[in-house]
Structures are given as C-alpha cells and as structure tokens.
Write a structure and sequence with these properties.
This protein is of the alpha/beta class and 259 residues long. The chain has two domains: 34 residues, no CATH class; 173 residues, Vaccinia Virus protein VP39 (Rossmann fold). It has eight helices and eight strands, in the order βααααβαββαβαβαββ. The chain has an eight-stranded mixed β-sheet with strand order 1-4-3-2-5-6-8-7, with helices on both faces. The longest helix has 22 residues. The radius of gyration is 21 Å and the shape is globular. The chain starts with a strand and ends in a 23-residue tail after the last strand. The protein binds S-adenosylmethionine. S-adenosylmethionine binds next to α5 and β3.
Length: 259
C-alpha cells in the first residue's frame, strides 16, 4: 500500500504511464508501421485508435487517456464538478479523470487504484483495492473533508463470459457506493460505470433511496460498440435508515396477546 502526492507530471514510470503522462513519444501511425509479429487483434486495436478523434485530441491536450472526454462530457451536461470540490476518483489510473477534475474546478482530488498512478499536482493517489474493508477509512484520512463527488470508472478485467463480467462489474459499483455512502457530504454526487442493461434493480433502489435524482448516461466519447454506460446519482440525502424490523410495542393499556 502506498500514497503519492503529485508535483508536476514526471518521475518514475508506472505500468500504464510514461514520463509524458501516458503517451510515449512515438506517434500511433509510426507504431502501426513498425509493428512486426503483432496479432490481428492488436493491429485492429491500433487502427481503431488511429481513426479515433478522441485519442488524438487527448494526446494534444496532454490527457493520460481518451476517457477524460467521457467525464468532461458528463460534467458539461450535469455540472458535477463544482469549484473547489473534494473529489474521490475510484479506479483512477492512469489519471485522466483526475486531470479533468483538477483543471475544471481546482478540485481537491484523492484517487485510488490497484495500480500506482503517476503523480499529478493537486492530487493524492493511493494504491489499494476498493473492495477491501479498510479502503474507506484510508480514503477518509486522505480527504480534507467530506467528498462532494465520488466517481468510479472501475471495470473488472473482461473474462469474455458476459454474466461473469456483469457480476464483477456490479460488485465494483456496490463497493464504490459503499464508499460514497460513507464519505459523501449531503447534496453530493456519485458517478459509476455500469454495463448495458443498466444498474441492477436492488442497486438502483438503493441509489434512489440515497439520492434525489438517478439517471443513466452514455457520453458521446464512450464507444458505441462498448457495453459501458454511467449511472449518475445527485443530491445525496445521507445513508437510508434500515427499516425497523422490531415488532411494534402495543399501545399502553391495550389487551396483552396471550395466545
Ligand atoms: C478504465 S480504467 C480508469 C481510467 C480512468 N478513469 C482515467 O480516465 O484515467 C479502470 C481502472 O479501475 C481499476 N480497478 C479495477 N478494479 C479495481 C479495484 N477493485 N480497486 C481499485 N481499482 C480498481 C483498474 O486498475 C483500472 O486502472
């Protein structure tokens, strides 16, 4: 377990990042041309990257991933990132959502990922698993106060077996919601990646109890052939009370049930 507080981008390489913040110096076109022995699927991936305007735009603007635009587009629509907000970024690597939160609102960002995230000025990154019970307390200790926005772009590694992938992703959404319920300020917002078909009934009911408004969005930057979409819950009301399961006390003077 470790934490890093960022200075300007730079420093050691992480598995996903490079010194330039996620992009190597070679252009994608160059990479395709020089590939030898590359599998058909990775060639297909590179070709798709080449024809994707968001990839080039992300590179031009210095974002670590094209997914930056997904958050930016959701924020354009719903104004999720408020000035000076405290933001939790769950599944933060390589860090492009944190970049957007910082640049849009001078937000105070705390992120966590299974992988180390390359430092970013204004953000604190922890390495850890959101499913671990101690994670919420680690995040609370790193945040300077209750969170205004908890966002999760976490995805379980695809197994190729649809139902398994769905279950794993939903488990991550539930873990993210546990953290949101523990750390959000009243009025706060929660954003999480879910898979097509939306949010499961039980989870949706929980979101509707805890938040004033719940909606699903597929931002334009989310690839059409991807099953992902985002659930966005705003106006946190606080953790809903469990319904009281104790039997009601009989009113005073009522005849006792002697059966
Ligand atoms: C799609 S990436 C996030 C991209 C990020 N939003 C960005 O724009 O840079 C999903 C991340 O979720 C992380 N992740 C998956 N399961 C996790 C878990 N249980 N705990 C913490 N992070 C997790 C993965 O390591 C991966 O880096």
């Amino acid at each position: 377990m470790s934490a890093s507080r960022g200075g300007p981008r730079g420093g050691k390489r992480t598995r996903r990042g490079t010194k330039a913040g996620g992009f190597s110096g070679r252009s994608l076109k160059e990479k395709v041309r020089t590939a030898k022995g590359r599998s058909t699927s990775s060639t297909r991936w590179l070709k798709r990257q080449l024809s994707d305007p968001y990839v080039e735009e992300a590179q031009r603007r210095g974002y670590r991933a094209r997914s930056a635009f997904k958050l930016a587009q959701m924020d354009d629509k719903l104004r999720l990132i408020r000035r000076g907000a405290r933001v939790l970024d769950l599944g933060a690597a390589p860090g492009s959502w944190s970049q957007v939160a910082l640049e849009r609102a001078g937000a105070q960002v705390v992120g966590i990922d299974l992988e180390e995230v390359e430092p970013l000025a204004g953000a604190t990154f922890l390495v850890g698993d959101v499913r671990e019970p101690e994670t919420a307390e680690r995040l609370r200790a790193a945040l300077p106060g209750p969170a205004d926005l908890v966002m999760s772009d976490m995805a379980a590694a695809a197994t190729g077996h649809g139902p398994t992938d769905h279950l794993r992703t939903m488990a991550l959404v539930e873990a993210a919601l546990d953290i949101a319920e523990a750390l959000l300020a009243p009025g706060g917002a929660f954003v999480a990646k879910v898979l097509q078909g939306g949010t499961e009934a039980g989870l949706l009911a929980r979101l509707k109890r805890g938040f004033r408004k719940v909606q699903h969005i597929k931002p334009p930057a989310s690839r059409k052939d991807s099953a992902e979409l985002y659930v966005i819950a705003t106006g946190f009301r606080g953790v809903p009370e469990e319904p009281d399961s104790r039997p009601e006390e009989p009113p005073e003077g009522a005849p006792q049930d002697t059966a």
